[in-house]
Design a protein that fits this description.
The protein is an alpha+beta fold. It has helices spanning 2-14, 67-70, 129-138, 146-175, 180-194, 198-216, 225-230, 277-284, 299-308; strands at residues 18-23, 26-31, 40-43, 49-50, 54-57, 61-65, 75-79, 99-100, 105-110, 117-123, 257-258, 261-262, 289-291, 294-296. It has a six-stranded antiparallel sheet, with no helix packed on it. Helix 8 (277-284) packs across helix 9. It starts with a helix and ends in a 21-residue tail after the last helix.
């Protein structure tokens, strides 16, 4: 219970801050805890802020780091929600490329002239993507393990043995004319013999000791029953690329095609002619951008662009960037 409260307080402290909100004709600074669905928030032009809610982008574009939710360090570009003639309802799953999620970091915003980058709050608190993640940690769903099923069967077997002993004990003492108090006392002794009374206490002490060791390693354990399950694990699987393998990519070569026929392999892409359409494609078909003079975006796109030897130039200054980027999937 104490560790669950500590985790809750830690998450609450990480969400504290101020943001600019448009309400009616006025613009004001409010605490992020006061945000409600329907508020219009103005993202800072310099970027560098943490989202405190789920919001859909209405104007401009934004570059985000969603590593907190996805574990991937690749920057993601979010574009403004398009306006369709037909009435299409907003759906957070369908319009992910236009949604800024709670807990993600806004690295940079792009806007048209003096227009603000505005987003509409759609979810707050535990209803957000981050909130659902925290809620699943604080209140995990019950899991049915074979370990638990075997434990129940073991208790049932012990109960059957105790029941047989109790019946036999009652029969003998009644036959010998023992008083009722003696019959009850000896019958309860049979239960304590079959099921040791110190067994639950011993298991609890072991679990508490394991929990204290985890706490020293800054690992929160809000479901002590899971500790016993972890002791039965024999195989751990990781699906995060970069944890067990390298996350870097290298461009080895390209194979141009001409007249529906593959040509010879070219290892140095920059050696292709500047008028070559393949070189044009590698240099232009991407969602890369520059942040603090550093090329940022999908690693595959970055390697292909760097292979061309070209330089990425974007229109406008950092404080007034005209967006021509396409959103990433």
């Amino acid at each position: 219970r104490a560790q669950a409260v500590s985790l809750h307080d830690m998450v609450a402290n990480s969400s504290q801050g101020k943001c600019t909100v448009k309400r009616g004709d006025s613009t004001q600074e409010v605490d992020t805890k006061e945000l409600v669905p329907g508020d219009l928030i103005v993202l800072p032009r310099s970027g560098s802020c943490i989202m405190a809610c789920d919001a859909v982008l209405l104007t401009g574009t934004a570059i985000l780091n969603e590593a907190m939710l996805t574990g991937e360090s690749v920057r993601v570009t979010k574009s403004a929600l398009p306006r369709h003639e037909e009435e299409e309802l907003y759906n957070i799953e369908t319009h992910k490329r236009h949604t800024l999620f709670d807990g993600t970091e806004v690295i940079q915003t792009r806007f048209y002239g003096d227009q603000d980058v505005v987003a509409l709050v759609v979810r707050t608190g535990f209803q957000t993507a981050k909130g659902e993640l925290i809620r699943s940690i604080l209140f995990p769903k019950p899991m049915d393990f074979k370990f638990y099923r075997d434990s129940v069967r073991f208790i049932l077997v012990l109960f059957c043995l105790a029941a047989v002993g109790m019946i036999y004990c009652v029969y003998l003492y009644i036959k010998r004319g023992a008083p009722a108090s003696m019959v009850i006392l000896r019958t309860l002794d049979i239960i304590t013999i079959v099921v040791p009374p110190a067994l639950p206490a011993a298991m609890t002490v072991g679990t508490v000791y394991a929990q204290s060791r985890l706490k020293k390693q800054l690992i929160y354990c809000i479901s002590p029953a899971r500790i016993n399950v972890c002791g039965k694990l024999k195989l751990l699987c990781f699906d995060k690329t970069g944890t067990l393998t390298e996350d870097g990519l290298d461009l080895k070569s390209v194979i141009p095609a001409k007249d529906a026929t593959f040509q010879a392999e070219v290892e140095d892409v920059s050696s292709l002619e500047d008028e070559d359409k393949l070189k044009w494609s590698l240099a232009s078909c991407h969602s890369l951008t520059t942040i603090n003079n550093v090329l940022t975006g999908d690693p595959l796109d970055a390697k292909m662009f760097e292979g061309t030897g070209w330089m990425l130039e974007e229109q406008g200054m950092d404080e007034a960037k005209y967006d021509k980027m396409m959103p990433t999937d």
